[in-house]
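Below is the record:
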Amino acid sequence: MHKTIPPRELDRNFALATPPVEIALVVICVLIAEWVILPVFGKNYLAGLLPVITAFVIILLSHRAYGESAHDIGWRVDNIGRALLVLLPGMLAASLPLAAFGLLYGSLSLGRVEAGWPLAWTFIGLFAWGLLQQYALQGFINRRAQMIWGAGTRSVLFVASAFALLHLPNLGLAAATFFGGLLWSWAYQRAPNLLVLGLSHSLMTAVLVLTVPYSWLHGMRVGYGYFL
């Protein structure tokens, strides 16, 4: 059985705020990166990194404040088998209809990978990007949501909704990330393993890109970049 993460005494030397405020600060940092940096600073990668780095500083300070270990957060290998068993049915339930749709619609394209990149490097990049997102989403937002509402429907819905919000105004991608967020958040609460979640994220991203017409995903762009 999964356990609700109980509220803990804060280490006031590192605490920034309560869980709801911490979540809001991290989400605002990401929204600034998506909506403010590009129109104000253009393609200035240093400026773009600043709100992202700020978000991860908040996350790390929060872990320190609550005394969370890497094992607590999900950086572990002892439950890989259980995490796979929890995730695989949902992944198959999503992948098979997408593959069937791609085949029937004519949008299935096994060769649709990033131009100029070998397939192995493309997948490594997908895995790293998925792992980073799952760490922030599950290892931080999910854990803080459980401190507010406990494990279960409310916290899972909140995490999935926050994930979808960060993919607006791309409605197709927001819908996909909402349903993906439901699966990953639910799985994390039962078997917290970020490595497996990162792998699942990368595989499901690949399935989505290879089966759904790419124009429907609007180039996977979000935030202000969606309109360019």
